[in-house]
Amino acid sequence: MFERFTRPARDAVTAAQTYATELGHDRIGDDHLLLAIGSGSESSAARALAGAGVDSAALKAEVERAHGRLGDDDADALSTLGIDLDAVRSKVEEVFGAGALDSGKPRRRFGGHIPFTKDAKKVLELSLREAIRLEDRSIGTEHILLGILRAEGEGHAALRALGVDVTALRSALEHGKAA
Asked: What's the pTM?
């Protein structure tokens, strides 16, 4: 199937692996695919995301939050309950060693490649279906983004959390307004 992917779509899949690695995740999820598309600037899908008001830094922060990394608001909320995260981290590192709470590097399989989650595989399958439905000969980043929207997984949830009108985004992608 990857032979039908455009160069930007292949680059997005490769970048998704890089994001998963950087974030310490052991699998590539549909949210990593979204991060990869959103961080680009030369694809129609990246332009559509920017047009929908998606900032790549905010998107990355939302993905980190969804994977359990606490943001400033979360830390403030815990602080109001009397929980000092710095004190908790210090005590854990005192008992278990420095970096005990940091996620480790993901397990590498198949020659250094991180496997895809079930949802990411579904998104890639849906991207093929979207290309066929739109009568396109190749699969581009816009098809991957349409697959993310259709799958309604973690990537879709991240967009909704950022206040993106997913119906308008889908329409822009389908009607070429992103190009």
From this structure: 0.76
